[in-house]
Amino acid sequence: MNKNISAVSALEVHDLTVAFDRKPVLWNIDLEIPQGKLVGIIGPNGAGKSTLIKSVMGLLPLSSGYCKIFDEKIDDVRHRISYVPQRESVDWDFPVSVLDVVMMGRYGKLGLLKRPRKADLDVAMDCLRKVGMESFANRQIAQLSGGQQQRTFLARALAQQADIYFMDEPFAGVDAATEKAIINLLRTMTAANKTVIVVHHDLQSVSSYFDWVILLNTRLVANGPTTSTFTQDKLQETYGGKLTLLSDVGDLIRRENFPNREEKVL
Ligand SMILES: Nc1ncnc2c1ncn2[C@@H]1O[C@H](COP(=O)(O)OP(=O)(O)O)[C@@H](O)[C@H]1O
Ligand SMILES: [Mg+2]
Question: Can you give the residue ranges of the ABC transporter domain (predicted)?
Answer without folding.
Answer: 11-243
